[in-house]
Write a structure and sequence with these properties.
Helix content is 66%, strand content 0%. By secondary structure, it is mostly helical. It folds into two domains: 27-81, Arc Repressor Mutant, subunit A (Orthogonal Bundle), CATH 1.10.10; 83-178 and 212-242, Tetracycline Repressor, domain 2 (Orthogonal Bundle). Helix 1 (27-40) crosses helix 4. The protein is flat. It starts with 26 loop residues before the first helix and ends with a helix.
């Protein structure tokens, strides 16, 4: 007697292969529709009913035959976006991680929901595995221990994902409050900021707030990425000097 599969099993291993495609449904069409809906949603939330409606099928239950479960669909969506992140062939570890950081942030900006979903499921799909394999190959030249090698990869990739979480929450806040533009946000905060200035309790914050570029680059930029890589390189140099 076989035991029942645990809920939330990974689609790569625990679900049966999807049935043949029909004129309306296939695994690829379902994933594409789910990603499009998540991209359009300020919160990134989607439902099987909304996906079914976009695909022109009456029953949301028909989708489960192709993706196994809502968790299975999440696996597929997340792995699809992992496929948009690139790492050049090994040669210059900084150049490889730099490109990974750039392309990861670009992918997160296209799909902010990916940042949240990527933390909810283990990265064991084929695109995620290819990405991690390429990134680990890039740092092989540094002769580091296993924990440090994956730490280098996750330092760069994790920054893009965590910044994506901030971007997603900001999108949801703007939708919820109706303050969709930077100008509207600034206008809403102005009375409170003026009161802070008048009280004079936080002189360094007030001075920073008065500078014209105070809010520049609040999300990842080329400079932020270089700071990360500089720190990682310093670690490599320190370890080499100690041996």
């Amino acid at each position: 007697m076989t035991s029942a599969k645990p809920p939330g099993g990974l689609v790569w291993f625990d679900e049966p292969p999807p049935p043949p495609a029909t004129t309306q449904l296939s695994r690829e069409r379902i994933v594409a529709a789910a990603i499009a809906l998540a991209d359009e949603s300020p919160t990134g939330e989607i439902t099987m009913r909304a996906i079914a409606s976009r695909l022109g099928t009456r029953s949301p239950m028909a989708l489960y035959r192709y993706v196994g479960s809502k968790d299975g669909l999440t696996d597929l969506m997340v792995d699809e976006v992992y496929g948009e992140i690139t790492v050049p062939p090994p040669g210059d570890w900084r150049a490889c991680l730099r490109e990974m950081g750039r392309s990861a942030w670009a992918a997160v900006q296209r799909h902010p929901w990916f940042a949240r979903m990527s933390f909810s499921r283990p990265p064991l799909g084929p695109n995620a595995l290819r990405l991690y394999d390429a990134a680990l190959a890039a740092v092989d030249e540094l002769d580091l221990d296993a924990a440090t090698r994956i730490g280098f990869v996750n330092t760069v990739l994790g920054q893009a994902l965590k910044s994506g979480l901030a971007l997603l929450e900001e999108r949801a806040m703007r939708e919820r409050t109706g303050l969709v533009s930077d100008a509207q946000l600034a206008e809403a905060a102005h009375p409170y900021l003026e009161r802070i200035k008048a009280e004079g309790k936080y002189p360094h914050y007030i001075r920073w707030l008065g500078e014209p570029d105070c809010l520049a680059d609040v999300l990842p930029s080329e400079q932020h990425l270089e700071w990360q890589l500089d720190g990682l390189q310093r670690l490599v140099e320190t370890r080499r000097a100690a041996t």
